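Reopening this ticket.

The earlier resolution said the output was attached, but the attachment link was broken on my side. Pasting everything inline this time so it's all in one place.
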Amino acid sequence: MPLSGLRVIDLTRILAGPFATMMLGDMGAEVLKIERPGSGDDARNWGPPFIDGISTYFLSVNRNKRSVTLDLKSEVGKGVLWELIETADVVISNFRVGVMDSLGFPYEKVAERAPRCVYGLINGYGRFGDRAQRPSFDVVVQAESGLMDLTGYADGKPTKVGVSIADEIAGLYMVQGILLALLERQQTERGQLVEVALHDALLSMFTFQAQRYLSAGLQPQRMGNRHPSIVPYETFEAADGTIVVAVGNEGIWERFCTVLGVQHLLGHERFARNPNRVANREQLEKELAPVFLEHPIAYWEEQLSASGVPCGRVRALNEVIESERRTGRDMVVDIDGLELLGVPIKLSRSPARVKVRPPQLGEHTEAVLTALGHTVEEITEWRDAGVI
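Inline output:
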């Protein structure tokens, strides 16, 4: 596997960090998840539902990891963590700014004692700036970044995205940053600091929306399922539900009009080219809406797809999961009776694998400490004292 032999010390919890370290584990890295004795990652209790006492929230982002419990406020816990860091290729945390420093593990000290170790930090707003010390969760960053203001209908309230998009994008960027740092380490033999702020990560996703403002001073507005720069690129009501179409160029527009039987629109000055259609969006929608109502979604999907017009029905998650079970793309996998989502990156020679279930709290503490050279007596004493 691509990351076989790589050791990751995972000090993260909740979602952004665990999502990143899960992806590293999927690609073969050994991930040691360090958790608080007795309680562990907060997400273990974010339920219901629970499976075998573990929340499905935790299960979703913690496969392919080993759990080690350490009290990082104790001298024993700090000492063991240093031992682990000195064996590691990557150490990653998503504590608030300053927490790693207060625990005694700032980047500078880790770089001195383990110079080849890549040091990852995920937090809400970064290590510097006027919001650096503010606590954050995904929904707060969705609001603060401007994403919530763009999501929903013009006459409705701002709405968050249906998944924790800030956490997940930050996790993806962290994996990218870690892999870049590891690649650079091959030349320099030194690790470096990799920092990802949730706010930065979300802001980078604004792409064309941000550029419209930067270059033309256009303030984006909530538009429901419409697109600000492409028309038609939205949902329509068919006879039995909602269908989405994406007419991304003039060739598709011609085929779209042919399928719908509205070829007369092709020669109409208001709709001839995409800029015209954007300027006359409402008039075009009035022309198209009654046509879609004439047939069910299945009819439109078949006709439009056959003509090369991108389209689809709005599906509920249960429909999607049941469909994925039949595709053979391994996006729903079974590991010891527990179904999980699969890995989207498909490598031809060294594919990722979902090998082990998310761990029980502290499941691997004794094995990891024994491998470091600690005796059964030491481990028993530390467990009795509540430091592991």
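Reporter confirms the inline version is readable. The chain has a mean pLDDT of 96. The chain has 17 helices and 13 strands.
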